[in-house]
Automatic annotation (TrEMBL):
<feature type="domain" description="DUF883">
    <location>
        <begin position="73"/>
        <end position="102"/>
    </location>
</feature>
<keyword id="KW-1003">Cell membrane</keyword>
<feature type="transmembrane region" description="Helical">
    <location>
        <begin position="82"/>
        <end position="100"/>
    </location>
</feature>
<feature type="domain" description="DUF883">
    <location>
        <begin position="11"/>
        <end position="60"/>
    </location>
</feature>
<keyword id="KW-1133">Transmembrane helix</keyword>
<keyword id="KW-0997">Cell inner membrane</keyword>
<protein>
    <recommendedName>
        <fullName>DUF883 domain-containing protein</fullName>
    </recommendedName>
</protein>
<keyword id="KW-0812">Transmembrane</keyword>
<dbReference type="Pfam" id="PF19029">
    <property type="entry name" value="DUF883_C"/>
</dbReference>
<comment type="similarity">
    <text>Belongs to the ElaB/YgaM/YqjD family.</text>
</comment>
<dbReference type="InterPro" id="IPR043605">
    <property type="entry name" value="DUF883_C"/>
</dbReference>
<dbReference type="GO" id="GO:0043022">
    <property type="term" value="F:ribosome binding"/>
</dbReference>
<dbReference type="GO" id="GO:0005886">
    <property type="term" value="C:plasma membrane"/>
</dbReference>
<dbReference type="InterPro" id="IPR043604">
    <property type="entry name" value="DUF883_N"/>
</dbReference>
<keyword id="KW-0472">Membrane</keyword>
<dbReference type="InterPro" id="IPR010279">
    <property type="entry name" value="YqjD/ElaB"/>
</dbReference>
<dbReference type="Pfam" id="PF05957">
    <property type="entry name" value="DUF883"/>
</dbReference>
Length: 102
């Protein structure tokens, strides 16, 4: 199972490769005579920067959500230790039962 960070890294790598190929195509000096190419180059650079900023924001939000979930779990474990211990005991008993049946 791939993690979110691996998926983001793979997607980012593919996007960077695609942008690099497109930049290589647009860098062709034979195209400098076409006025729309300069505008297209600028739009490409702006779009890449926008995507990078969005990816950074998404990663930061995911990290913040993970931290909030960890804090909530920690708070619950400290507020209700017997419930957590009971749940751990139940899960351990179930796993033990399933392994014993093997």
């Amino acid at each position: 199972m791939t993690s979110v960070s691996e998926t983001i890294s793979t997607t980012q790598g593919e996007l960077e490769k695609l942008v690099g190929d497109l930049r290589g195509l647009l860098a062709n000096r034979d195209l400098d005579g076409i006025p729309e190419i300069k505008q297209l180059r600028q739009r490409l650079d702006d779009g890449v920067q926008t995507v990078r900023d969005a990816a950074v924001r998404a990663a930061q939000q995911a990290a913040d959500q993970a931290k909030d979930a960890a804090r909530a779990a920690d708070r619950y474990a400290h507020d209700e230790p017997w419930r957590v211990a009971s749940a751990a005991l139940a899960v351990g008993a179930l796993v033990g039962f399933l392994l014993a049946r093997r």
